[in-house]
Automatic annotation (TrEMBL):
Membrane topology: Multi-pass membrane protein
NCBIfam families: SP (TIGR00879)
Gene field: LOC103637010
Record-level GO cellular component terms: membrane
Lineage: superkingdom: Eukaryota
Cited CDD domains: MFS_GLUT6_8_Class3_like
Parts of the chain that traverse the membrane: 58-76, 96-116, 128-146, 152-175, 187-205, 211-232, 296-319, 331-352, 359-381, 401-421, 433-459, 465-483
Regions annotated as coiled coil: none
Compartments it resides in: Membrane
Protein's name according to its UniProt entry: Sugar transporter ERD6-like 6
Listed Pfam families: Sugar_tr
UniProt keyword annotations, A-Z: Membrane, Sugar transport, Transmembrane, Transmembrane helix, Transport
Originating species: Zea mays (Maize)
Amino acid sequence: MASDGDHGGALQKPLLPKAARGGGWFRKGTSTAHPSGLSAAAAGTSSKAAALRPTHHVPALLCTLVVALGPIQFGFTTGYSSPAQDGVTRDLNLSISEFSAFGSLSNVGAMVGAIASGQMAKYVGRRGSLMIAAVPNIMGWLAISLARDTSFLYMGRLLEGFGVGVISYVVPVYIAEISPQNMRGALGVVNPLSITFGAMLAYVLGLFFPWRLLALIGTLPCLLLIPGLFFIPESPRWLARMNMMDECETSLQVLRGIDADTTAEVNDIKVVVTSTNKSGTIRFLELNQKKYRTPIILATGLLVLQQLSGMNGIIFYSGSIFKAAGLKNSNLDTCVLGAIGVLASVVTTKILDRAGRRILLIISSSGMTLSLLTVAVVFYIKGNISHDSDLGNTLSMVSLIGVLACVTAYSFGMGAIPWIIMAEILPVSINSVAGSFATLANWLTSFGITMTANLLLSWSAAGTFALYMMVSAFTVVFVILWVPETKGKTLEEIQWFFQ
């Protein structure tokens, strides 16, 4: 494989030692793929890789389940604020603005993590980045559990946020890079499904445990993630980018099964990496090139619209929203909210690779538009009638159904697919820079939504949901006009399409 190193002069060497890059158990397998030529897809025509038996999907699924511990941590961080709000504000004597700052600081930390995530994933790999991200997450939860005032509380939230920011970029990229093309959508949904599951876990456990103990429970996903990462292979596409073709072939062979023919896929990866190496390192100012502009706009646009829909604000302050709607057991209703999100994500996992990305995004955004419009109208009417009237009680139930429908629609598409598309359409040559930028834009928007949600709800609940509804309506138009279908395409085919 000496020839592979000839076009890797512009590559930076990874910072992790070779043993840490390669993994452990999977080195028992040896690659049987020794490509001698280019596949049709690599030459610019559409070619499908050799069909894989169902058993060949198992290794990629197991690897996905291991890294899913990161998104579970992500979701637990997101869901923690709602069940902990009453206890934290009471025990530490916090004002509404101080607790709002606590809820939003994870977004500040996540923005820093998003900025660092691309370079971390580039130099230390996807697995190494997740190992690094796990440490501040654990430290952050410990700081929150020990907090006696806002200093430890805020510091812990910032540390959590940094880890979550790295996780939010690295996990969808890793899953996309290891998945067979006919399972990339289904495995990609595991990321947002795990986020939703983590949030639901925080809601449910918050019913039974005080906020300090709940914070200690929050350390468990990352405590399990760190040892789990030693048992999965590194991304074959990252290994190829680092000019380690032997390790790339070994990793891919294990991911597809020892008896699978990986020749075509290895060839496609080699051609794209060779083309990337010739262009050298892409800097931030060079992203404005025409061939990069469209995928960056699409990836960033979807991730920003995902947050502008207001879902993070709804999740963060779901308890307050349900109280404002006149529902007595707001914490239990929040648990139902999380459970419905999980079920909707499971359905998406089953149908995404059959239905396609575009149609689910359109259905999801349309459903959110109608649901948010319903909730906005309900809150407007409730503001003009007696809360104790029969109509008021009926409207409370309608508002609950509307919020649940909105979460269902979000989990059906907008929660999952923007991250999947980001990982699919950004070329490998700009993935570290453009991916960090798109992730940063997502978290910056999330910060704005989280900071303003409570204030907007205090101003006008009806007006707040109406604003979110207009964003969802625009998203429908954005998807119809500009978002391409990536179902059934290899990552290399998608990149050739944009070039």
